[in-house]
Specification:
- The protein has 2 domains: about 160 residues, Nucleotidyltransferase, domain 5; about 55 residues, no CATH class.
- The chain is about 45% helix and about 15% strand.
- The protein contains 9 helices and 5 strands.
- The relative contact order is 0.19.
- The N terminus is likely disordered.
Length: about 220
C-alpha cells in the first residue's frame, strides 16, 4: 500500500504558499460501454491524512465504501457530477469527462484556490495542475476518485441494474467484458449504451439496431 504521507507532496507545496482550498478532481467510467461518466471534486482540510487511501481501482469495494464515508464526513466540501451517455456520444468521451469534472468543481460550496486534476485540464479560470496518475500521487485526487467510483458503482448496482436487468450491470459495471458484450449481442443495446463505443462490437448492424431501438422507445 502506498504510504499516505507520500500522497500529500503536492498539497504540502501549496499549503506552504498559503493556499488553503485545494480541490482534487477525478472521473470514472471513461472506458465503459454503458451509462454516465461520473466526476467528483473534493476539498479536504489542511493537514488531513486519510489512512489507507489510494487509487480507487487498487482498493477493494469494502475499503472504497469505508473511505467514501470518511471523505464525505471530513471534507470541507465536495460535489459529484454525472454526464449521460448521450452527451458522451455527442461530444466524445474526453470532452464529456472534462465537462463532468468542470461541473463537479462548479458545484462546490467553496471556490477552490487551486485544482489538482487527474491527467486533465478543466476549462475554468482557476490555477490548476494536471497530474499523470494523479489518483496514485495526490490524496486529494485519490479522494475524488473514490467518491466518483463508489457513486458510479452504486448507480450500476442499485439503479441501472434494476432498470436494465438483462445486461447484469451489477457484475461488470458497464465495462466491455466478455459477459457484457455477449448480452449486448443477445439483447441489442439500450438507450443508455454509448453508441460511439459499440461500433467495433456491432459493426454495420449498429445503425439499423439503433434506428429500431429508438422507433420502439419513441426517443
Amino acid at each position: 500500500m502506498t504510504d499516505t504521507m507520500d500522497l500529500l507532496a503536492y498539497e504540502k507545496q501549496l499549503w506552504a504558499q498559503q493556499i488553503e482550498f485545494i480541490a482534487g478532481i477525478d472521473e470514472v467510467g471513461r472506458g465503459c460501454l454503458f451509462g454516465d461518466v461520473v466526476a467528483a471534486a473534493v476539498i479536504l482540510p489542511r493537514g488531513f491524512v486519510l489512512e489507507g487511501i489510494n487509487d480507487s481501482k487498487k482498493l477493494t469495494e469494502k475499503k472504497r465504501e469505508q473511505l467514501y464515508n470518511q471523505i464525505v464526513e471530513s471534507a470541507i466540501t465536495y460535489h459529484i457530477s454525472c454526464v449521460p451517455s448521450q452527451v458522451v456520444d455527442r461530444l466524445n468521451i474526453k470532452q464529456a469527462a472534462r465537462l463532468a469534472m468542470r461541473k463537479a468543481v462548479e458545484g462546490l460550496n467553496i471556490k477552490p484556490e487551486h485544482l489538482l486534476v487527474d491527467a486533465e485540464t478543466i476549462d475554468l479560470p482557476i490555477s490548476q495542475q494536471a497530474i499523470i496518475k494523479g489518483d496514485a500521487s495526490s490524496q486529494s485526487i485519490a479522494a475524488a476518485s473514490i467518491l466518483a467510483k463508489v457513486t458510479r458503482d452504486r448507480l450500476c448496482k442499485e439503479e441501472w441494474d434494476e432498470q436494465y436487468p438483462q445486461y447484469q450491470l451489477a457484475k461488470h459495471k458497464g465495462y466491455g467484458t466478455k459477459l457484457h458484450n455477449e448480452l449486448i449481442l443477445q439483447h441489442g443495446p439500450s438507450p443508455m449504451h454509448r453508441k460511439t463505443f459499440l461500433k467495433k462490437l456491432l459493426g454495420d448492424e449498429l445503425d439499423q439496431i439503433w434506428e429500431t431501438l429508438y422507433a420502439k422507445t419513441g426517443d
